[in-house]
């Protein structure tokens, strides 16, 4: 890990993978002290991907909301 830290290239883009799906990829790089000014509304399982690639968001089926009773009885 030290070798990578010492000799590795620095990431200077917001989403180095190009298709990061979760919220840590929705903020800038380096992240500000407070990433979000308000709590973001989550409408899918991959909000950052939907934000950066709306053409892919239009192709995927919308997630149906799960009610609290279904989550309470679910056994994984």
Automatic annotation (TrEMBL):
<feature type="region of interest" description="Disordered">
    <location>
        <begin position="1"/>
        <end position="20"/>
    </location>
</feature>
<protein>
    <recommendedName>
        <fullName>Cytochrome oxidase subunit I profile domain-containing protein</fullName>
    </recommendedName>
</protein>
<feature type="compositionally biased region" description="Basic and acidic residues">
    <location>
        <begin position="42"/>
        <end position="56"/>
    </location>
</feature>
<dbReference type="InterPro" id="IPR036927">
    <property type="entry name" value="Cyt_c_oxase-like_su1_sf"/>
</dbReference>
<feature type="region of interest" description="Disordered">
    <location>
        <begin position="28"/>
        <end position="76"/>
    </location>
</feature>
